[in-house]
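Entry 12.
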Amino acid sequence: MKNSMMKLRTLSFLTSEYFTDALRISLSVVIPVIVAFSLDYSHEAIAIGLGSLMISLTDSAGSLEQKKTMSFIAVPLFFILSLLNASLWAHPVILGVVLTILVFSCSMLAVFGTRYYLLGTASIILSIFVLGFRPHDPLIFSVCVLIGTSWYYLISLLQSRLFPFKSARHSVAECISATGDFLKVKALFYRVDVSLDDAEKQLLSGHLRVNEKQELLRSIVLRDRRARNPESSGGKRLLRISVAVIDLYEEINEVHYDYQYLRTTLRPSGVLELVCNIIDLMSSELFRLAYGLTSGAGVPLQDHYRQELELLQERLQYIIERESHEHAGLLGRLKLNVIGLSARIEEIRAALSKTESMDAEPSEISYDHFISNPDKPLNILARHINTNSGIFRFSARLTLACLFGYLLSLFLPLGTYSYWILLTIVIIMRPSFQHTVKRNKERLAGSLMGIIFGSLLLYVTHGAALQLTLACFSLLCFFALNRVNYKLSVVFVTIMVVLCLNIYTGADTVFIIERLVDTLLGCGIAFAAAYVFPVWESSQISFFMSEVLKANIAYLEKLLLDMQGKPEPLTSYKLSRKDAYVSLANLSSAFNGMLAEPRRFSLQEKNIYRFQTLNQMLTSVLSSLFSASRLSHKLNVEIPDIATVRIAIGILRDSLLLLDGNLTFQEKNDVREEWLLKICWEIQCHSSFFRN
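Predicted 3D structure (tokens):
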């Protein structure tokens, strides 16, 4: 099983957007360089390659419309920045002023979202590279950069037009894989050799990852006009799969028990191991479906999957029939969960099947509500021009760090490649302290390993042709791994730089020492700058906790309306569910960031972690109650009375008031924890749905 899963994951990676995009980007960079070199335009080749390489950093996954918009902005911007910096490199004082303005302005582009954050970062890196190259003819150099950028986006847009749903398919497949991983985490609760605390931690981590993939799915699939075109069978198929996989995740979340009691009472029957086998089988099937989607291959039903699942279900039924009445009820609920999850997986498989007709009923879901409508750019920018904005603080922090690095390169004899100090600073520094520290460690380790392996390659290989081939292979590996394993991608990009500079300098290996020193200096400056104008996650924890409580109150209010016979539209319910999951993921992300901060800034980790786990349980309970409320006539189960739900809403509202009270943070957490326990207890005690 493990070998087959490893093979499947490897094949999935090779057919994924990560690898295919890496291959396209590498060819888009290398081909024009080779052509220019063959025509004896060596300097022009470098500028064209630089333009292609730098603008590839702005080309994130997205629809054809999103890529078009970015190309219309990035291509002329890169030409202007190249011309400006190429004209000023001989005037260090003026250049320092321009560079300061440029770094701050480009980093502020992050207020418009991740896509523009990448544009800003790529613009700064391009400007730094131009300073390093010091072109003698600014206009010719900039025109060559323009050729490179235009060529790159010509290929990228052509690919998007020829394969219109490539990014959408990849995002859906990633979501399916993340859901499969989350399902495997659920199996840990049935493994007696794994502590429940460890299982809870992995569950919260898995929830955060699934939420990220679902947000990416919404931003790509729901914003793609072709995917939502009623005439497009491929688009309708992707929408159906997207809805099915998100519903599957909710179904997984609905499964919640007193796992300590479950382990104690059911361990002798062998049912715990049986449930783990069922979960492993289902998660493997999800990975197979994800691979089928990314590879474009068919996804026929595997006979052995259905046979194995039926066999395991028969064994479960056999155990149920021989257990006591109390245990049989609990096992019956487990079997219902298995049947429900299996049905959801079948929905995904059916939607993936190319033989299935897409002539289905119109969806009840209004997809426009699941994507945010951006405000006017000037209004967005105005909201962030203040010291309370995290992006403003990050921009100021990055600007000061780059200015210090620039001055250091002017006044200290650091060699020809001192611009690597600025590159290291820009690449490492991130808006959050946690990600800056993490990138710093990965960058240092990756650069050191890359220099070692690069030096070994220089020692054992001879000839520019062989070294250039290895450099191209390293470039491919860098792009393929950049979004998957940053440290390993740094290793390959460092090897590429070592090999290329060795060819460019005529085997002058002094640059290796210079690069190492520059990397160390850049890492040191970036780490020190992380303490300048910081935005500590610990100072925002109360806000994220408040958002979680508000989302669960809104979720409970939808349940209350449902129980009163006044159900909201399906879209309204799904939005409440989404908000509950997103708010919990935001809290988990902030909590993880807080743990990376200096200890004197951190708060009571144990209490906040307990708050997260209780809210994870509460959200699971609420999801189950919605299903029970709408299927009670079929399942013949009770649901909590209206008074119980109103009590729960009141308790959550009282918890919100604590945020503005005079209690200490410790006292607030203790009270909130007590009340959340009471909510879960009240709801579960009033519902035979959770007892059986």
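Annotation: The mean pLDDT is 79. The longest helix spans residues 605-635.
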